[in-house]
Design brief:
Layout (H helix, E strand, L loop, with lengths): L16 H4 L16 H4 L35 H13 L21 H7 L2 H4 L11 H18 L3 E3 L5 H19 L7 E5 L5 H8 L3 E5 L9 H7 L4 E7 L11 H10 L3 E5 L19 E3 L2 H4 L14 E3 L1 H4 L6 E5 L2 E5 L20 H37 L4 E2 L9 E4 L10 H10 L6 E2 L9 E3 L7 H19 L3 H6 L11 H6 L11
Parallel strand pairs: 2-3, 2-4, 4-5, 5-6
Antiparallel strand pairs: 1-7, 6-7, 8-9, 10-11, 11-13, 12-13
Helix pairs in contact: 4-13, 6-13, 7-8, 13-15
Bound molecules: pyridoxal-5'-phosphate (PLP).
């Protein structure tokens, strides 16, 4: 087996000082340059191949590959180093605060990880006979019970695999209910606040509805007068987040629920912000008909970069009969899976996933809930709101809150404090990277100019929050002195400078082409 030298620099050492920067290798101490796996791999270092033994027929029965397979070949140490180096270029919740508003990036207790790795949960297969996975089904049933209890809702669909997928589940249940009422052709409009998360209108459109924006009032909440005027016999549903994406509680939520019900429509609530209200407010008491719960936000789970997630969706009496299969039912001490309409699920709108949902997330979420207890979950919500208000109050000294008063679990700022400084929201966020912080959510919600949405969550300590606030206050003071160069150049200490995000979105390069081609 031949072994190549490990850790090759981007350019031959010392030959290109401009490209390599201040060091011969292009590396900066622990910050090691890393090429694509396709660029470092070849087959010389991979595996062991014995010569064909004399006198024996070929082992592959004439099926030997004729061309190169085209995958990178790496030795085990090369593969380890490649992925460890890449992982070190990433910011992570285990490195520092991850203040992305709306995303609820909180500490993931290691207990949850330990539970999720128990072989009885981790090593089972969804096609095993039901009699051999009774414990897993019991866990799903128990988690469903906690979710129904916490939300005050009678039913929950466990299979959706993300928040957006849960929205699809809720809207498909609403559509099925409209079909059953014979109103699917007349009720085609969905109303959503203009501050809503992009997935809300996208989901409604996916289900064939048209979407109209409900304007916000001066306090950042739904303009109830405008909302009333928009209701009519063509409205299928409203989609509202509470607390909303400005981190504010929609005080008129009961009235909105009553109004939409009087108009014959349904109330979809985006439950991604449950972190602020769990144990305090039962969404069932607010008159909602369907709401997804992001287990990967509210109840922890390492998420980001597109996965993994779980979006169980609670349903009201009016929608419960349309819930998707499969679902778990307890029959005495046994648990059964309802997989087909013929098993008593005649009105189910169908199936959304191949199997039963995200088992690993279920285990983590239940572990989070049981280790907190109902009082602990309530305190987590209170601490999340307290932390956000602490950040809001400290940062107010130099930054400009988007709305007056207290917030819920997120502190929202606009870019008024940067006015005439030449520094924009994006520059400010990039400067945070150099200070060692992941930026907050930028330019969302859209109703706030140059928005900066900060969600500290309950898992940050006061010391951690003080350091974070000190860094942001110092940056804000610096920005106001007009030192734009530093901000426009940031980040300078990250592995890469600013990327052309427009080109990346419009012309994504998703395929590596060998220079030899
Ligand atoms: C995160 C989020 C969603 C979507 O959830 P995913 O799990 O990312 O699909 C929807 N609405 C709001 C308000 C969110 O914060």
């Amino acid at each position: 087996m031949s072994m190549k030298p490990q850790g090759r620099p981007t350019a031959p050492i010392g030959t290109d000082p401009v490209k390599n920067g201040p060091t011969h290798t292009g590396n900066k101490a622990l910050q090691i340059e890393e090429k694509l796996i396709f660029e470092i791999g070849d087959f010389r270092g991979t595996g062991v191949d014995f010569a064909q033994a004399k006198g024996l027929p070929p082992r592959l029965g004439g099926l030997a590959r004729k061309d190169e397979i085209g995958l990178p070949g790496l030795s085990e140490p090369q593969a380890m180093r490649h992925y460890v180096r890449l992982s070190q270029k990433n910011y992570a919740i285990d490195m520092g605060p991850f203040p992305l508003g709306s995303c609820t990036m909180k500490h993931n207790p290691r207990l949850n990880e330990k539970m999720a790795r128990l072989p009885g949960f981790a090593d089972i297969h969804p096609l095993q006979p039901v009699s051999t996975v009774q414990g897993a089904l019991e866990l799903i049933d128990m988690l469903a019970l906690w979710l129904k209890e916490l939300t005050g809702m009678p039913a929950v669909a466990m299979s959706p695999k993300a928040g957006a997928h849960g929205e699809l589940c809720g809207m498909m249940a609403i559509k099925a209910a409209l079909v059953a009422r014979g109103e699917a052709d007349t009720r085609r409009r969905v109303l959503a606040p203009e501050s809503s998360h992009g997935t809300n209108p996208a989901t409604a459109a996916q289900c064939g509805f048209t979407v109209d924006d409900i304007p916000a009032d001066k306090t950042g909440r739904v303009d109830i007068k405008a909302f009333k005027a928009m209701l009519g016999p063509d409205v299928a549903a409203i989609m509202v987040t509470n607390p909303n994406t400005g981190g504010l509680f929609e005080r008129d939520i009961r009235q909105m629920a009553d109004l939409v019900h009087e108009a014959g429509g349904y109330f979809y609530c985006d439950g991604a912000n449950l972190n602020a209200i769990m144990g305090k407010v039962k969404p069932g008491d607010l008159g909602i008909d369907a709401m997804h719960i992001n287990l990967h936000k509210t109840f922890s789970t390492p998420h980001g970069g597109g996965g993994p997630g779980a979006g169980p969706t609670v349903l009201s009496e009016a929608l419960a009969a349309y819930a998707p299969v499969p679902y778990v039912v307890a029959k005495g001490k046994e648990f059964e899976l309802v997989e087909k309409r013929s098993q008593g699920a005649e009105t189910s709108f169908g199936r959304m996933t191949a199997f039963h949902g995200q088992m690993g997330m279920f285990v983590r979420a239940l572990s989070f809930m049981m280790s907190h207890g109902i009082d602990g979950l309530k305190q987590a919500a209170e601490d999340a709101v307290l932390n956000a208000n602490y950040v809001l109050t400290r940062l107010k000294a130099e930054m400009s809150p988007a709305f007056p008063g207290f917030c819920m679990h997120e502190a929202l700022f606009d870019d008024a404090f940067l006015k005439d400084s030449g520094v924009e929201t994006i520059d400010f966020a990039k400067a945070m990277i150099d200070e060692g912080y992941h930026p907050m959510t930028m330019y969302f919600p859209l109703i706030v100019h140059g928005a900066m949405l900060i969600e500290p969550t309950e898992s940050e300590s006061k010391e951690e929050l003080d350091q974070f606030c000190d860094a942001l206050l110092a940056l804000a003071r610096e920005a106001k002195t007009g030192k734009t160069d530093k901000f426009k150049a940031a980040p300078v200490f990250a592995p890469r400078r600013r990327l052309d995000e427009t080109a990346a979105a419009r012309k994504p390069v998703l395929r590596w082409v060998s220079p030899a081609q």
